[in-house]
Amino acid sequence: MHIYRHCRLCPRNCGADRLNGYKGYCGETGELRIAAASIHRGEEPPVTGTGGSGTIFITGCNLGCTFCQNHQISQNGMGKTVSQDEFVRICLALQEQKAENINIVTGSHAVPALVEGIALARSQGLALPVLWNSSGYESLEALSLLEDTIDIYLPDLKTLDKVIAGRFFNAPDYPEHAQKAIIRMMETRRLRFKPVRGTHTAPAVSGVIIRHLVLPAYLEATRDVLCWFAEYARDRALLSLMTQYTPVKQAGIDRHLNEKEYKRILQWLEEFGIEDGFYQELTPDTGWLPDFNRQNPFSSELSTPIWHWKTPEGAIPVHNTGND
User: Fold this and answer.
1) What span, in angstroms and rounded, lies between the C-alpha atoms of 301 and 40?
2) Which among 75, 41, 37 has a CA at the least distance from the CA of 57?
């Protein structure tokens, strides 16, 4: 954990002494804090599979997205400190509930603790693939620490535009670091799937799935990302094109994507010949937005709660599928 002493874990290079209780740009010390864990059925088909993804939502974040749907935990500090033993119990509970994978959500600022926790969980019987669900704002040094731990990478490629990155993510250098990080991910993990008889939903066991959220009124930035994917990631990764932008908090863009914009991005997929991946239907809605004050932050159709930061120490409410 000495890497936390003068933290250079992510591209922020904030230098905080997180080992001795000081908070980095991410808002976190060296302690591992978690907000929730659940069987999530709203991810991409190779991530969800038939059993759902075993999501673990880590408190804190090294970006500052103005429209973050998880701002309660990424920016407002919602969550609870957990020991390595409790982290292992959470992983094993997800496995017992037939999760397809362990999906670590926004853990870039907690790499050393998570690497140790996953290793301990594997020594106690964890056999699921581990998925790294991140903003893409990673350092190559952090990725080297993850190389023997992570099976599937699910990074964002939010933008290649420095101005957009500065305005909406508070990270003008995001494009530079995200491109390098995703290329490294593709170099270390090739796409592989677990065949499942009787279903077309083959869960991924290795590889990279690149997410991109379309920002209303900034479609040319999406075109640039699609062009990059066609040049650098075709046949090496899957694309997940997301159209669920929702104005939340101080979003900076106060509307959903419209039909005209949606049709344009679908035309670009054809223009660039991008066929391997997924895109969302255009359904402007806020019903999917999570609330991490609830034991089940998502709707019961999307999620089955396994652990929540408000529960007593060690309690894992695997049988509770409600929202309260």
Assistant:
1) 9
2) 37
Instruction: Inform me whether the pLDDT recorded for 45 exceeds 60.
Output: yes
The structure tokens 């509930």 sit at 97
Q: Is the pLDDT of residue 324 over 80?
A: no
Question: What six digits make up the tokens of 207?
Answer: 């590889």
**Strand 33-40 and strand 53-58: pairing?**
antiparallel
Give me the CATH topology for the region 32-308.
TIM Barrel (3.20.20)
The DSSP result for 130-197, as a single string, is EEEEE-S---HHHHHHHTTT-SEEEEB---S-HHHHHHHHS-TTHHHHHHHHHHHHHHH---EE---T
Cα 161–Cα 162–Cα 167 angle in degrees, nearest 5: 105
Q: How many helices and strands (H and E) does the chain possess? A: 9, 11
Q: Report the pLDDT averaged over residues 197-208.
A: 81
Q: What is the DSSP letter of 304?
A: E
pLDDT at residue number 181: 98
For the chain, domain boundaries: 32-308
pLDDT beyond 60 at 321: no
- In the numeric block, the tokens 């993850």 are attached to 146
Q: Which pair of structure tokens corresponds to residue 285?
A: 């809605």
* Gap between the Cα atoms of 21 and 117, Å rounded: 20
